[in-house]
Automatic annotation (TrEMBL):
It comes from Nitrosomonas supralitoralis. The keyword tRNA processing does not apply. GO terms for molecular function: copper ion binding; oxidoreductase activity. The chain crosses the membrane at residues 526-544. PROSITE patterns: MULTICOPPER_OXIDASE2. This is Copper oxidase. Residues 176-274, 341-430 form the Plastocyanin-like domain. Keywords: Copper, Membrane, Metal-binding, Oxidoreductase, Signal, Transmembrane, Transmembrane helix. The lineage of its organism: Bacteria, Pseudomonadati, Pseudomonadota, Betaproteobacteria, Nitrosomonadales. Residues 1-23 form the signal peptide.
Length: 571
């Protein structure tokens, strides 16, 4: 190849490299994502009536106000307090519960409240594969567009698993988390588990005073390796106990616990002190606010909240979205899924993640109140719950009262997996119990607890909100601070398609970059590597084609180096 052609190619390569470097210095324009292009949701669930927020009395049951934007169905509370066997058909029809879901009879000790309690639970699947169409059914969103596969213990219902024939959204009774069960010391309690699922299951009464076995019903500790055979699909089993000690306890499936508990088969079970005329809210389905507290709680506290923290692995939940065949699900869950390699992707409070936690799981307070908080961590890792603006006192660990002289105040509460804490939260503005009125965050202080599938803000974030900071719609007031929460109520945000800070200034200085005017980094690297390869190829070509000349030139140069530099010959 003529040498001038080689020099031309080298010159072209250098010019191309220079042009590439200059192109990479050109910054793309900023574009804003148009809000009209987003799948926006109302902040409050539109199917929930605002009238549910009000304090009311139904069939003699007093229900406290719950001013959050998505309060629990008051009819559920009436049924939980009186039993589905002791309410009118009109109220029962508003619940969706089976007529035998909660049975209350027999005032055995004559103190004015029922002492024989029967609770019937089913096992239901959320966001699982269906043979009817390509999607999942029934759907339950923990945040906008976020539908993890899950299983739950659910109160026995009377209707469909969906809202209606036209909807694929889950019946409101079928939701995360499994409902809180509340009974009294001395009650004779039967939990009837009807296995409506395709896998075997059980119930372990974790922390609840119960016999290892029951003469009529066999083993009842829920553990297949020690006390009972797994409850197969279509079967039912009765777990019976008469608790002797009050406290905040835990119930969960103990079959293949590493997956069944993580999938959502877990809930709180609370044993209250025995008090006269103590009609309890036996099931707390939903947002955590106990709208009919026990007599003992009302004697000491102004309000009570059940706070159930749970985390889920996306990989595990996705298994039930892949198959209709239980054998394939069992294979992947029991033999292929490696919990030692798992990670937590979804972090929930009372079954929801931010921003939906603002709908249901706000702790709404007024100054100078005492609030009882019951916390459960049913996730696989320790959490660290932090209360902004407040220090709370730990009164009970795992259902056992801590020595009152040794009780301490903290603002971060470490809760191990399966552990329960009872807290006393006081809103006295003294700089210790409370810093004053506001919208104060309560959250898991692990950074990943702030995320939903890696996107922040998400996770189990909620707030301790004073009523002076609560809007008319039941959401915290933020607009007067210039804060707009609406972008969190779009599925695009959690799909990573919405720039987090695009609205911080008018020119969207941190918005989304438009299409690149120059070459992206990967293309630049590829081109430079190609140029380096071309140059190396040309060098090798020159060596082979000019080898003779190179050889002669090399020998000549070596000879000159070896020859004497001068001569001292005498004539």
């Amino acid at each position: 190849m003529p040498i001038h052609i080689i020099f031309a190619i080298l010159t072209f390569c250098m010019m191309l490299a220079t042009a590439t470097a200059q192109a990479s210095l050109k910054l793309p324009e900023t574009v804003k994502v148009d809000p009209a292009a987003l799948t926006a949701e109302p902040m409050c669930d539109p199917i929930i009536s605002a009238a549910w927020r009000e304090a009311q009395e139904i069939e003699g049951v007093k229900i406290e106000a719950s001013p959050g934007c998505s309060p629990d169905n008051p009819a559920w509370i009436v049924a939980a307090v009186k039993g589905t066997n002791n309410i009118s058909m009109d109220t029962l029809m508003k619940t969706g519960l089976s007529p035998d879901a909660i049975l209350k009879t027999d005032d055995l000790d004559g103190d004015g409240d029922p002492d024989r309690i029967i609770i019937k639970l089913e096992i239901m699947e959320l966001n699982g594969k269906t043979p009817d169409f390509p999607g999942v059914l029934p759907t339950f969103d923990i945040a906008p567009g976020i539908q993890p596969g899950a299983w739950v213990f659910a109160p026995k219902g009377s209707g469909m698993s969906t809202e209606n024939f036209e909807s694929i959204r889950a019946n409101p009774l079928l939701r995360l988390p499994s409902p809180v069960i509340r009974v009294e010391v001395g009650d004779i309690v039967q939990i009837v588990l009807e296995n409506t699922h395709y896998f075997p299951h059980s119930i372990h009464l974790h922390g609840v005073d119960h016999p290892f076995s029951h003469g009529e019903h066999g083993g009842q500790d829920g553990v297949p390796q020690t006390s009972e055979i797994e409850l197969m699909p279509g079967e039912r089993r009765i777990y019976e106990f008469q608790a002797r000690q009050p406290g905040t306890m835990f119930y969960h499936c103990h079959v293949q616990t590493h997956t069944h508990l993580a999938m959502g088969l877990a809930g709180m079970i609370i044993v209250e002190e025995n008090k006269p005329n103590n009609w309890l809210q036996t099931l707390n389905i939903g947002g955590g606010h106990v709208r009919h507290p026990s007599v003992a709680v009302r004697e000491q506290f102004d309000q009570e909240y059940d706070l159930h923290y749970h985390s889920m692995d996306k990989e595990l939940g996705n298994i039930i979205k892949k198959y209709n065949d239980p054998r394939l699900i069992a294979r992947d869950m029991n033999r292929r899924y490696k919990i030692t390699e798992s990670k937590e992707d979804y972090f929930t409070l009372n079954g929801l993640s931010f921003p939906y936690t603002l709908r249901e799981s706000l702790i709404i307070v007024e100054p100078d109140q005492k609030i009882k908080l019951r916390l459960l961590n049913s996730g696989g890792e320790q959490i660290a719950v932090h209360t902004h603006g407040h220090h709370a006192t730990i009164t009970h660990y795992d259902g056992v009262e801590h020595n009152p002289m040794a009780q301490i105040m903290r603002d971060v509460f470490d809760i191990a997996p399966a552990q329960r804490l009872d807290l006393k939260l006081e809103t006295v503005n003294d700089g210790k119990h409370s810093y004053g009125e506001g919208d104060w965050l309560i959250h898991d202080h692990r950074e990943k607890g702030f995320t939903t599938d890696g996107m922040a803000e998400g996770g189990s974030i909620s707030s301790i909100v004073y009523t002076s900071y609560l809007g008319e719609n039941g959401m915290p007031k933020t607009s007067h601070f210039g804060i707009d929460l609406s972008h969190f109520f779009t599925k695009e945000y959690y799909e990573g398609r919405l720039p987090v800070w695009q609205d911080l200034d008018e020119w969207a200085s941190l918005g989304s970059p438009a299409g690149q005017t120059g070459l992206d980094t990967a293309t630049q690297t590829a081109l430079l590597n190609a140029l380096y390869g071309l140059l190396a190829g040309l060098l090798i070509y020159l060596i082979f084609t000019k080898w003779g000349q190179i050889k002669l030139s090399t020998i000549s140069a070596i000879s000159r180096l070896k020859s004497p530099k001068g001569s001292n010959h005498n004539g």
